[in-house]
Amino acid sequence: MRIDVLTLFPDVFDNLNSFSIIKKAISSNKVVIKTHNLREFADNSRKVDDYPYGGFPGMVIKIEPIDRCIEQLKEINNYDEIIYLTPDGDLLNQKTANHFSTLQNIIIICGHYKGIDHRVREHLVTKEISIGEFVVSGGELPAAVLCDSIIRLLPGIIGDESSALSDTFQDNLLSAPIYTRPENYKGMKVPKVLLSGNDKEIQKWNDEKSIERTKLLRPNLFDND
Questions:
Q1: In order of start, what are the domains of the chain with their CATH numbers?
Q2: What is the band of 135 on the pLDDT scale with cuts at 50, 70, 90?
Q3: C-beta neighbour count of 35 within 10 angstroms
Q4: Partners of 34 in the β-ladder
Q5: Please, are residues 10 and 37 in contact by the beta-carbon 8 Å criterion?
Q6: Separation of alpha carbons 38 and 7, rounded Å
Q7: To the nearest whole percent, how much of the chain has pLDDT over 90?
Q8: Would strands 60-61 and 49-50 be described as parallel, antiparallel, or unpaired?
Q9: Please, what is the Cα angle at 12 between 9 and 15, to 5 degrees?
Q10: 4 exposed, middle or buried (CB, 10 Å; 0-12, 13-18, 19+)?
Q11: H-type alpha helices, 28-86
């Protein structure tokens, strides 16, 4: 899988690429992440932003550097999706992450300031994604979240691949509680059924607790297919 990230702050991704699951994916050639500094696609002044028409406050990233960068990338690769991170996009969920993990090449555009020229969204972007109903300073951190949610699902990345299948939201349910050693810590005990070795009873307990927690904490998930 190849992920190309268009950003004004490529240094943000240096650390992202050097730890945990993402580092493992890159080292094993499961994924390639390339960052592209939009200033390198601006005019000679390297100016990437300008004032919005209409007299509104703030600054907007211009269409030219984004379009030039995408055109150059498309000369080399075919892209399944061109994704823009924006608070008013479709809320990222596990189903979407699962879908993205099956693709070969994607572009992620990180906005900044007041955002990007809307013509990019109208004519170049194929999918708009939000990580929540709030605003952050730029698209780099949401892009990092998106990358991690995708890459951890690639085959061979997680040691026990069945672990990803039991993650919260995979089946529109929250995960059941999980415990590890010691069995008893200051009187706080692990449920006996988990120590029983009875796989059938353990699975029944797990399913019941998963449904119970979902009804209590996220009942809206039962409305989603």
A1: 2-151 (3.40.1280.10), 166-223 (1.10.1270.20)
A2: very high
A3: 21
A4: 4
A5: yes
A6: 6
A7: 80
A8: antiparallel
A9: 155
A10: buried
A11: 63-74
Question: How many C-beta neighbours within 10 Å does residue 55 have?
Answer: 6
d(CA 59, CA 47): 11
The predicted-structure confidence for 63-122, as pLDDT tens digits, reads as follows 999 999 999 999 999 999 999 999 999 999 999 999 999 999 999 999 999 999 999 999
Structural tokens at position 170: 């995979």
Nearest alpha carbon to residue 85 among 36, 34, 144: 144
Sequence-ordered list of residues with C-beta below 8 angstroms from that of 120, at least 6 positions apart, any chain:
63, 66, 67, 84, 109
Q: At what angle do helices 20-27 and 140-151 cross, to 10 degrees?
A: 60
Tokens 């006996």 belong to 192
Interstrand relation of 81-91 and 127-130 (parallel, antiparallel or unpaired): parallel
pLDDT in tens, 57-75: 999 999 999 999 999 999 9
3-state secondary structure of 141: helix
Closest CA to 92 of 79, 103, 105, 101: 101
Name the one residue in this structure whose structure tokens are 């992440």.
33
**Residue 168 and residue 36 in contact, taking contact as beta carbons nearer than 8 Å:** no
User: Which residues, in sequence order, are CB contacts of 215 under 8 Å at separation 6+?
Assistant: 222
